[in-house]
Amino acid sequence: MFSVPDSVVEPHAGAVGGGRARRSLWVVPLVASIAFVTGVLVWAYRTEMDEQTERRSTMIADALSSEAQLRARLDTEMARLEDLGRHLATVPRNAAGLAGDPVVVEGLRGLWLSVTWLDSNNRIVAHVPDQQPLSGLRIKDLVDGPGVSSHLTLQAGGERLIVRYSPALLLRRGIPWWLTRKYDVQLVDASEQVIASVDEVPLRLESDGRLSYMVLVGGNMPGAYLELTSRELPLPLWRTLPLVLIGGFLALMLISTVLLRRQVRQITRAQDAWRTEAAWRQAMGDSALVGLRARDLEGRILYVNRTFCDMVGLPAQVLVGLMPPMPYWPPEVADEMALRNQRNLEGHAPREGYESLWRHQDGRLINVMVFESPLIDARGKQTGWMGSIIDITARKQLEERERHQAEAMAYQSRLTTLGEVASALAHQLNQPLTAIMGYNGGLQRMLGNPGYDVDAVRNALKNQGDQAAEAGRIVRRIREFLTRRGPQREACQLDAIARRAVELVQRDLKTQHIQVQWALADDLPAVYADPILVEQVLINLVRNAADAMGAVGHGGNVRIASASAGQGFVRLDVEDDGPGLADRTIEQLSAPFYSTKADGMGMGLAICRSVIEVHHGGMDAGKSSLGGARFSFTLPVFDPVLHEESLAGEDARAAWENME
Ligand code: ADP
C-alpha cells in the first residue's frame, strides 16, 4: 500500500519496454479488424467471381435451350408448310380456296402473316390474307415487305409457297416467359443489327458490363443469331450489401480505435502522474526529518520511512508487518505502552500529540512526540492510522538542563531573600504566637476562678489551636520555599498565588510606600503549574518594579491584573508607574547577567522566563498603562483529561527512574 515498488520509482529497461508494449495495445483490435476485413474481402471477391462464372454458364445453357426451342418452332412451321405442299393439288387455285384450307387457317392463327402461292413462272396464283390487288404485288415485296421480317419457302411440283412470319412473334411465343424476365432476348444479324426483340422497343445496349451471349440460330433462319443479355445490371463490388456492412464496420472500428487510443493516453498520463507522485512521496518520506509510520486498524505496521527506521535502529523489512508489542517499546513500561496503544487504536489519541519513551536497538532510550491521525482511503473509509514521530530526546535533555539551572538559580535567589523571608516569618509568626500567649494567659485566669465557664474555656482552647495551626502553616510554607526540588505541577489558582507572593514582600512595599492595585478577573480557571515556583516569579517581578520605582524616587503604584488569554491559557500582568523599559525587549532583559543595577545579578528575569517556559507558558514585556513597565506571563489552564494523564505518565516515569 505504501511501499512503492522499485520498478515504479526507477523503471528498468525491461519495464520501460513492457510499458511501451502496453501503451501500443490499442493497435491490436485495429490490426485484427483490418485482417478480418481483408479476409472477408477476399472471400467476397472469390464468391463474386464464382457467381459470375455460374451466371455465365446458366446463361449459355439458357441461350442454347432457347435457340433449340426457336429452331423446333420453325421446324414445326416448316412441317406445316410441307403438309400444305403435299396436298396443294387438291386446293382450289384461288385466294378463297387457299384461305379455306385448314392448314392455312391454322398457320394464320399462329405465326404466319401471309401465304403466297406462285406458279412455275413466278406468277401469283393466290395470296392470303388478300387486301392488295394481286397485280401490284411483287415477289420482292413478299419477302422484304413492310412488317415482314422473315419467310419460309417451299418448292412443290414446280410451284412455290411463300409464308411470311414475324420473328418478334416467334421470339415472344417461342421463348418461355421466365427467360424473358431474366434476359433481354433479341435476334440479331451478322452485323449485330437487331432483327427482332421480345421487348416492344428493341434497344441496342452499349456495353455496360451486363452479361450477354450470342448463339447462331441456323436452320430456317440463316445468318441470324439469338442474343441473351442479362437484365440485371451488375452491381460494382463495393456497392454490394456485405461490402457496405464491412465499410460500416471498418468506420466503427476506426472510431472506436480513436476513442480507445484517447482512453489509453489518458490512462497512461494518469499512470505517469501516479508514478511521479509515488516517487515524490517516497522521496519526501525518506527525506522527512519526522518519522512516519502507517498502521492498519489492528495496529499492524504497513509503512515506515527512513527516519523512523533510524530512530528505532531497525530496517523497514523487519518493521513492516509487525503487530504490537513493538520491539522498540522499553520492556519496563511495556504494559503502559500496550494500554496507550489500545487507546490510540480506539481513536482516543490526543490531537495535539503525546510524549512517549522508546528504545533504540542499541539500548539507549529516546523521548518521542507522537501525533496520530486517521488514514483515509480513496473512498473516504478509514483504513488505519498515520503517525508522525519527532525525536525530542535532545530537546528534553536541554529542558532538563535548563530546569536544573533554573532550580539552582532559584535556590540561590531564595537563599538571598532568606534574610528577608526570615524577618517576614518572624513578623508573621509573631501574630499567632502573641495570640496563643494571650489565649494562654486568659485560660489560666479563667481556670483560677472556681466557677469558670466551661464553654468559654473550650472556645479559647479552640482559638488557641487555630492560631497554632496557622503558625504551623507559615513554618511549613517557609520550609517548602527553602527546600530544593523540581517543579511539582498541580491545579492551582493564579490569583491566590499572586496574593501570597505580595504578602511575602508586603513589608518592603510598605517601607517604600508602594501601593498595590488589584485587577484580578473573577472565575478564572485553575492553571497547571508549580505554585511555589510561580510565586517566586511574581515576587521577582514585584521586587523589580519596586526597585525601578525606588531608583527614581519615593513611592509608586504596582498593578497586578489577571485575565483569560485565548484558548487554554491564563495571563497575569505586573505593571508599574516607574521609568519603563525604554524599548528594551524581553529577550534583552531576560538575557543572563543583564542588569542595570549596581548590585544586580541580572539573573532574575532569566530565571522567571525559564520557569514560565518550563510550564509551557510565555513571557512578555512592554509599556504599562500606568506609564512604566509591564511584565506579563501566561500559564496553561488545567485540563483534567490531559494533565491527569501526564501526571500519571510522570508518576510512571518517576517510578521507573526510582527502579533504576
Ligand atoms: P537584576 O534585578 O539583578 O538586575 P533582572 O533580570 O531581574 O536582574 O532584571 C534585569 C534588568 O531589567 C534590570 O537590571 C532592569 O534594568 C530591568 N528591569 C526589570 N524590571 C524592570 C522594571 N519593572 N522597570 C524597569 N526596568 C526593569
Any key phrases for this structure?
660 residues; alpha+beta; Beta-Lactamase; 4 domains; five-stranded antiparallel sheet; five-stranded mixed sheet; 51% helix; disordered N terminus; disordered C terminus; binds adenosine-5'-diphosphate
Number of domains: 4
What is the strand content? Answer: 15-25%
Shape: rod-shaped
Terminal CA distance: 42 Å
Structure notes:
With 660 residues, the protein is an alpha+beta fold. It has four domains: 39-230, no CATH class; 289-391, PAS domain (Beta-Lactamase), CATH 3.30.450.20; 406-486; 487-660, Heat Shock Protein 90, CATH 3.30.565.10. Helices cover 51% and strands 20% of the residues. The protein has 20 helices and 20 strands. It has helices at residues 6-9, 13-23, 27-86, 95-100, 102-109, 139-144, 167-174, 177-182, 241-287, 306-312, 316-319, 334-345, 393-416, 418-448, 454-482, 494-511, 531-552, 586-589, 604-614, 640-659; strands at residues 112-118, 124-128, 150-156, 159-165, 183-188, 194-197, 212-218, 221-230, 291-296, 301-304, 354-359, 365-376, 382-391, 490-492, 514-519, 527-529, 556-564, 569-576, 619-623, 629-636. The strands form five sheets. A five-stranded antiparallel sheet has the order 10-9-13-12-11, sandwiched between helices. A five-stranded mixed sheet has the order 15-17-18-20-19. A four-stranded antiparallel sheet has the order 2-1-4-3. Strand 1 (112-118) and strand 2 (124-128) form a beta hairpin. The chain binds adenosine-5'-diphosphate. Residues 544-545, 548, 576, 578-579, 581, 589, 594-597, 600-606, 629 line the site of adenosine-5'-diphosphate (ADP).
